[in-house]
Amino acid sequence: MIKNKSIHFKERWPRLLLILLWLGFGSQARAQGFLRADGQRIVNEKNENVLLRGVGLGGWMLQEGYMLGINRDGQQHKIRERIEALIGPEKTARFYEAWLNDHTTRADIDSMKRWGFNSVRLPMHYALYTLPVNREPVKGKQTWLDKGFAMTDSLLAWCKANEMYLILDLHAAPGGQGNDLNISDRDPSSPSLWQSEANRTKTIALWRKLAQRYAREPWIGGYDLINEPNWGFTNPETDKNGTGEKNNGPLQELLHDITKAIRQVDKKHLIILAGNGWGNNYNGIVPTWDKNMALSFHKYWNFNDEAAVAHMLSMRERYNMPAWLGETGENSNVWFTEAITLLEKHNIGWAWWPLKKLGVNNPLQVRSNADYDKLVAFWNGAGTQPGAAVAWRGLQQLLADLRIANNLIQADVLDAMLRQPQSAETRPFRPHVLEKNLLIQAADYDLGRNRYAYFDLDTANYRVSTGKNTAGNRGRIYRNDGVDLAAKGNQIYVTHIENSEWLAYTINVAEAGSYKLVLRTANPLGSGIVSVSVNGMQAGARLEKSTEGGTALTTIAGIELGAGLQRMVLRAHAGNFDLYTLELSK
């Protein structure tokens, strides 16, 4: 039976859920009791090493513009102002209440556990827990808000039920902790965390309040005090993000004072520090002042070699304290597998970023919709202002698609994070069963590492190391491997095929025999040479073709296939063509 040629996105998540269950991602070993630092390890109360494998809930309490497709003025308060300008304050308030209720639910945490994660990092926005200093009715007093604490209580209950550690991360501190505005929802027209004693006092008070509330909760894995400080204390004009700071005095002092406040009410929980310069500049911060601390590092867009973790290992050994990669991600599956393999080789736990957003390079993808696309185009300066009805409809649909039941589960991302670091084995992306006829979508090549399930020359973004942006999957749709994909209507196809690249497909053949293979291709550059192998042996004649554009059907006859699982590899000896489908028939 020939399958439908189109791939419908809205049908995809339940199919991928079945794939995930079939893959059998196992849960991690149960942890026991409070986490603590034991020399260079993080251990539980049985003194067992605990390797944290987690994901951060970015976008839930704190929106960042890029997660919503917005490429300018991406602070949450700016996004909210623009929504309110289109639909009014009452509907905006309803939108944000629904966002907080539906972004992360018990079902999300249950799924994370089932897939194999053992921890969750919660990026907190202070304004859900306490009023901004300029809104306090009594100067110098702290007004506590129920919303943030109630959300945290619920999340902790879900984590406890799944025996997963919850790490509290102050992602947006009062006033904002850096010049990278989006990550802390900072308003540069108001005093920052570093320019206001009231903001500093509120930050300390918030951590004391949190520690007092959760002091007896062993499934709170730790307190990640300030996410990614990035502030130039000494040379704000030339080093605004603090990557070159030699002292970091104000940061060290604040971290010390937060620790003192926490220890007044909580002697047991692990305290996690982050350096300046987005978490990696620890000048003046170490040696530390508490025996139960870990150092958090953040890692993006660099190579995954020994040099990339040398500073983490050096500091871990020199100061005899654990290292944890508190945030990383936003890259391709190849990069994910490389990074996790490297980290776990050195017993460094990790928290990926984020669980869900628009886009494919996370475990869950939130779909966009046509009305919301009009909003984003307007906000990005590429379209006209939509009417209030269109805006509200687009936002309502976005809220519906925010729920995990309507998310697209990225099976390839989960496979790259949780299976591929331990195994080079390939597996089918979806079942390909050949009875008499079989139509395979070219984008449905096998799951697995580059050079094992496929071979692509451009697989990840290493721009921090190379100074050059590379896309991996240029289309950034459907899958997050290095293979370049594009779409025409509902059909996804492989594009930008280069010389020597190849794709593997595992096929379950009902009846051994000789089959005809038809490739549907587009050849805009007028070249292309391909060959097919089955189980490592050449099958049929090598196909050389030359057309002048458009699409073409090209046939390789006499493909011998045995019964059962067969591995078919399509190899491009000369590229510059697109591949849509592969059809096998008697």
From TrEMBL:
Keywords: Glycosidase, Hydrolase. GO terms for cellular component: cell surface; extracellular region. It comes from the Bacteria. One of its GO terms (biological process) is glucan catabolic process. The keyword Hydrolase applies. Residues 97-356 form the Glycoside hydrolase family domain. It holds the Pfam family Cellulase. GO terms for molecular function: beta-glucosidase activity. The keyword Amino-acid biosynthesis does not apply. Belongs to the glycosyl hydrolase 5 (cellulase A) family. This is Glycosyl hydrolase family 5. It comes from Pedobacter yulinensis.
